[in-house]
Amino acid sequence: MTGIFPLSSRTTKQALTYLILGIVTTFILLPEVWLLVTSLKRNTEYLSPQLTFLPAVPQWANYAQVFTMIPFFNYVRNSLVLGASFTTLCVMSSSLAGYAFARIQAPGKNLLFSIVIALLMIPAIVTVIPQFVIFSQLGLTGTYWPWVLWGIGGSSFHIFLFRQFFMAFPRELEEAAELDGCSPFRVFLEIFLPNAQPVLATSAILNFMWVWSDWFNPLIFLSDANTTLAVKLNYAYVTPQGQQLTPVVLAACVLYVLAPVAMFFFGQKYILQGVVTTGLKG
Amino acid sequence: MSTREITRREMLKLSGTAAFGALLAACAAPAAAPQAPAATSAPANAPAPTAPAVVSGPVTVSVMHDPKEFTDDMIKQFQAANPSIKLEVIKTDMTRFYAMATAGNPPDVVRVQAPDLPQLLARKLLKDLTPYFQSSSLLKPDDLAPANNYYKAKGPTQFGDGPIYGMVKDWSPDFTLFAYTPAFEEAKVPVPDTTKSLTYDELADLGKKLTKVQGDKVLRWGFDTDTAWIDRIWMNMLAEKGQSLYTPDYKKINLVNNDEARKVVKYFYDLQKANILASPVNPSPSWIGDDFTKGLVGIIQYGYWFSAMAESDVTKGKVVMLPSPTWAGKRRNPTMTATGTIISAKTKNPDAAWKVFEWYHGGSPSVDRAKGGWGVPGLKSQYAMIPTESLFQQQARAILDAELPYTNDVIQFNPYISGDTISNLWNKYVEQALRGSLSFDDMLKKIESEVNTAIQEGADRIG
Amino acid sequence: MAIHLPRVQKRRPVCAQQRAANEQARKGMSPRARRQARAFYLFISPWLLGFIFLSIVPLLVGLLISFSNYDGLNLMEVKFVGLRNYTRAFGDTETQYALQRTALWTLLNTPLWLAISFGLAILMNQNVKGRGFFRTVFYLPSAVPVVATVWIWRIYLDKNYGLVNGLLGLIRPGTALPWLTDYALQSLTAISLWTGLGSGMVIFLAGLQGIPTELEEAARIDGANGWQVWRHVTLPLMTPVLFFQLVLAIISSLQAYVVPMLISPGSGNGLNNLPPRGVYLYMIHTFQQIFVFRRFGYGIALLWLLFILIIALTFIVFRTQRYWVYYETELEEKKA
């Protein structure tokens, strides 16, 4: 263990450590608590000059209003559909490519892989804006086609993830299979893929969370009727007089984050593994 | 085991999963989310449809509109009465409109606002509808309300009269005022006479007296107007003196060397600096109309349409509508937005499109709008339908009638820039000026040069 | 087939593999290699198609547009204007201001994030009870979608109704600090740290735990105290990770736009949101050009300029590696 604090007393050091961790915990948790608490207030309560921490009476009705003011489930469905289709396609495409870079020999492989890495350097926006121009001239804006195409094209980040994962398998695995006369595709499908659950889970979770959280792309590519929850809840909970009902929006936010937070809790292991793999290796 | 590359079975498996992904996405374009129907009374007996221009076979007319103003119920009603025409409604999106126009397939009927019109005309995208109006029994040229002057033009910089390119759906004289009486009581200032028009200077004075500030917080703005339309207000003020922000060919804006323009701009700058008017430094918590209904504004400048929502729980019985103010003594109170419809020049079904147009502007939808009280009808003959039940509605109606003689003028918008260019620049630069990082004159210079650049680009693009 | 005379070896016979390889080199690829190559290209074909149609084509189209006066609406009458959009960027005071703000933002955000995440990782590396709890709590914000994050911080920092001002008001009544407008850059930093500390900590913690304890023990045996072990063993071994994260942080800070756009007061459809002046970042300026003024050409030119800047900066930072980044092999050489 690296002990770098030049403090003599061990308990002082420990106390200081926990103090710092406690401060950071407060910094992280306090806004979240405020979210929950405010989502249960009346709008007038929130807007009163007198600050109250807890609501006088918890307005569970706010959560009901989330569903009554707009067809909330429609937007959840939109996000789910986009998320599922993109995730399926991207995981497939990236795993195939990642596997190929890891396990198959071919001329030009190294060049292509350096292209994959180089693409990570390009700010996505440099391609997204022209894509927007192209798609609008083709009439593909307002549809989910951009996500289908992006899914098929895979992602450099995920290709890297799969490649690192597949590279770790022993060489003998394929050689044994090839002796049996299996095609490379069968080797992939029946030997490597079944053992790839961790990386598949990581990739799927990260991809789905990306679509769920994405605000910018649905904003420019989709229209109000088929947009995702991320975009809609920013302007949806407004009375006919044009007043925004903040607590209701917050209630919608709470429901909105349930999905990624749940995914995080159940898939923490996979997410962190993915983060660490790509974060450490230069 | 086969040694071939990929067996058919494997290919099917692979494409199956791919298809699943794509299918999910492709199938998922849902129908437009059902909208809460606009508040309407039961449709009155609509005038019988006019003898239709001959329409052969079922045609599809595409309408680019706001789904709240062009509801599913209305669509069903129209299609039932006109079985040979099918309606397809697309949500308003100017980018999409132009993309469709470029592809040679613009929507037939399009919802627009007045600032869009000069540009659309310059790009030759509007159809001249004068012959249709002349032979229509629902939409007679003499019956058109003054706001329709926004849809008449002899050229992109000559709006106000001439061939008719469209029609207003409903409108309001936009420069009227609404006063919140308790604000006056608190400030011990008498509520202005409803038969007299204030000057803008008197208005600023009143605004100052009505403003309430506590430390850093503004508790009440004395006078508020919508700065999203600030350049339209400037133009209307200048027009009283026969002046304009622009040169006669509209290729340049003059702010710095134009004393009159400088004065109108400074008027609002001073109000914002004194926290009488909401500004980026002291912004409205939601929007100023909402603030008014919560009693946070002393006097607000909005059109007649605002009377439909001015009375809330907080303000009921405490609102007085006032005539529009003047800058130089000449009364001018046109609408600033003139939301309405046009028909694309390149429409493939002009007659069918006209039927839809005529029904929307003269048939039952227009009657419903007239009775809703959210605006003045586009046809003078429908004025009688404006609701006047409550005391406040009667007072508002009285003010409206008094304002009507001053609503014939139009604000000529610049065909080379979009309607929000100037207000966007204003918001950006006034914030810096209010914070002191930019002097007023420098702010004027910056706005002027950026607008001129935008005008140049716009002229360049139109070719 | 020419006869290949095996070289007469005085030392070792040419083994069968070598001969086969030589034959292969003459004949072209073996059937196995050919099948492998076919499989490879088939496997990467979706990515390759995506690369061509979703990366190369848009990049070229973007470049083309940047040389024109395209405004989204004038495809038929578009004019080409050469490098005018690029030279314009250099004279545009607004562009310069935006670049300045972005540089300031990067300089503020990056070291803070690096230092605090790294510090937290060091703390957590010690015998801390409830490590799992802390890790989960700290990492959770990065799982929160950005839209929700902004709402959380909007109501937290609101001038009149936010919790921060409310708590400050307990000490000094009437506090109404305009965090989101006047201190926008600081607020943005807070939001960014809130979101990013967890993942930074996780990465650095993994890095710390990857350091073989033998190295540290060996140093201690040699008589080094805690601080010296840290300074001469641990820290140098962490520099590769630090370096990599530094590069990534700089690149992403230069491109920031989502949070500033979302915290803008006032509505609009989001794309023409104008954030407070303090966070008028480069990307915001670019979006204003594209979506408010419809200057697609100028906007894309600005994006390309940023792209070039990022590459240049990355290159420069890479160059500094030799002064402060120690890769394991070098370290061993140093010790030897």
Structural description of this entry:
The complex is a heterotrimer of chains A (282), B (463) and C (336). Chain A is 72% helix and 0% strand. Chain A is mainly alpha-helical and 282 residues long. In chain A, helix 3 (61-69) crosses helix 14 (246-280), helix 4 crosses helix 8 and helix 5 crosses helix 8 (156-167). The mean pLDDT of chain A is 89. Chain B is 38% helix and 13% strand. With 463 residues, chain B is α+β, with helices and mostly antiparallel strands. Chain B has helices at residues 8-27, 72-81, 94-102, 116-122, 130-135, 181-187, 200-210, 230-239, 259-273, 288-293, 350-362, 364-372, 391-403, 421-435, 440-462, and strands at residues 59-65, 85-91, 109-112, 152-153, 159-164, 166-168, 170-171, 177-180, 212-214, 217-225, 297-301, 319-322, 340-343, 376-377. Chain C has 17 helices and no strands. Chain C has helices at residues 16-27, 31-43, 45-66, 84-91, 93-125, 131-143, 146-157, 163-171, 179-182, 184-209, 213-221, 226-254, 258-262, 282-292, 296-319, 321-324, 328-335. In chain C, helix 5 packs parallel to helix 10 and helix 6 (131-143) packs across helix 10 (184-209). Residues 4-12 of chain C have low confidence and may be disordered. Chains in contact: A-B, A-C, B-C. The interface between A and B is large, with 43 and 42 residues.
